[in-house]
Design a protein that fits this description.
The chain is α/β, with parallel strands linked by helices and 387 residues long. It contains 14 helices and twelve strands. The chain is globular, with a radius of gyration of 21 Å. The chain binds pyridoxal-5'-phosphate. Residues 73-75, 98, 100, 141, 145, 170, 172, 192, 194, 204, 206, 324 line the site of pyridoxal-5'-phosphate (PLP).
């Protein structure tokens, strides 16, 4: 079956009791047991919930995993992966990384004796040099956030396994429509379901999918013990989001390519970071690794001052000034002041996250309306007048 058919049907049989074509939302916190010490398929909603199970089953299938686990947020999912580690273990992470993951590693897990190094995963030679004898996990994001760097997943899987480490991939920007890391050798794929999977800016969630059933069991034990599970209503919304995921993502990718090309020609734009442009250093790997599109995130460097960058992102009318991404509505932000504010200024500078870097999440609006909005905001920020 094709991806979008599976997204609609796998794990979603009609309700046996009523025939409802949409599985119901099970809000019960606890379940009657057959007898003392005997367990049915569900006993307590933290340990397992039928609505959550529907979402996990569909997602596991779409990611070619043996199973999936849904969490209360993307960060809860990443934290569960990090809980596989022991004090003294080392994590090697991409340095084009979501600010919250950086903060978790740098400020929270360091207190538990877990060491982390950040290195450019789009430069495999330099990345490999950062592996240590105690590296137990390699954590990459591709496309990276916010510079849209492309990391070769298969090469990183080989690197991790050669050193006895696991490879985890934050695939939030790519979605399983474009890239399926488990098929390329990764051990764990993670999504902030808040983004494309939910797709409508109305749910907070995270999910992990894995190939190895034993690893799934270890992660389930951590999830059940720590409790960061996805609630039933959120799981329902994520299942609904999956049904239109392919259509949304493909359309958003098409619009993003149009906008990236137009931005690259604008005199006030110094540089565009979009893996679909041949000028992007990761374009050849992206062509191999991403199927049918290059994502709907674009970052670009303005040729102006930080003040003009702020004026620009505040001047868009359709595109809203907000963090987050991956939804039907387009969002714009300045990473240095918003999504990546948790990096120390020196760390931002080292990574190339300047005060004039803009990140755009392309939604489902018409490409011409989005372009008109960007053009008028650029004109307002740079010439002080509305188009
Ligand atoms: N990974 C990426 C790439 C993200 O962009 C985000 C959130 O913006 C997260 C992880 C964290 O997800 P959540 O906000 O659902 O906890």
């Amino acid at each position: 079956m094709h991806f979008r058919t599976r997204a609609i049907h796998v794990g979603q049989p009609p309700d046996p009791q009523t025939g409802a074509v949409v599985p119901p939302i099970h809000l019960a916190a606890t379940y009657v047991q057959p007898a003392v010490g005997q367990w049915g398929p569900y006993d307590y909603s933290r340990s397992g919930n039928p609505t959550r199970k529907v979402f996990e089953t569909t997602l596991a299938d779409l990611e070619s995993g043996s199973g999936a686990l849904a969490f209360s947020s993307g960060m809860a999912a990443i934290h569960a992966v990090m809980m596989l580690l022991e004090p003294g273990d080392h994590v090697l992470a991409s340095w084009d990384l979501y600010g919250g993951t950086y903060r978790l590693l740098q400020r929270i897990l360091s207190r538990q004796g877990i060491q982390a190094t950040f290195a450019p995963s789009d430069d495999l030679e330099r990345f490999a040099q950062a592996v240590r004898p105690n590296t137990r996990l390699i954590w990459i994001e591709t496309p990276g956030n916010p510079l849209l760097t492309i990391t070769d997943i298969a090469a990183c899987a080989e690197l991790a396994h050669r050193h006895g480490a696991l490879l985890g991939v934050d695939s939030t920007f790519a979605t399983p429509v474009l890239t399926r890391p488990l098929e390329l050798g990764a051990d764990i794929v993670m999504h902030s379901a808040t983004k494309y999977l939910g797709g409508h800016s109305d749910v907070l969630g995270g999910v992990l999918a894995v190939r190895d059933p034993e690893l799934l069991e270890r992660l389930w034990t951590i999830q059940n013990a720590t409790g960061g599970v996805m609630a039933p209503l959120e799981a329902f919304l994520c299942s609904r989001g999956l049904k239109t995921l392919e259509l949304r993502v493909r359309e958003q990718c098409g619009t993003a390519l149009v906008l990236a090309r137009r931005l690259a020609e604008h005199p006030r734009v110094r540089r565009v970071y979009y893996p679909g442009l041949p000028s992007h250093p990761g374009h050849p790997i992206a062509c191999r690794q991403m199927q049918g599109g290059f994502g709907a995130m674009i970052s670009f460097e303005l040729d102006g001052s930080p003040e003009q960058a702020k004026q620009f992102v505040q001047a868009t009318r359709i595109i809203q000034l907000a963090v987050s991404l991956g939804a039907v509505e387009s969002l714009i932000e300045l990473p240095a002041f918003m999504s990546h504010a948790s990096y120390e200024p020196a760390q931002r500078a080292a990574r190339g996250i300047t005060d004039t870097l803009v990140r755009l999440s392309v939604g489902l609006e018409h490409p011409d309306d989005l372009w008109d909005d960007l053009a008028q905001a650029l004109q307002k920020a740079f010439d002080g007048s509305r188009a």
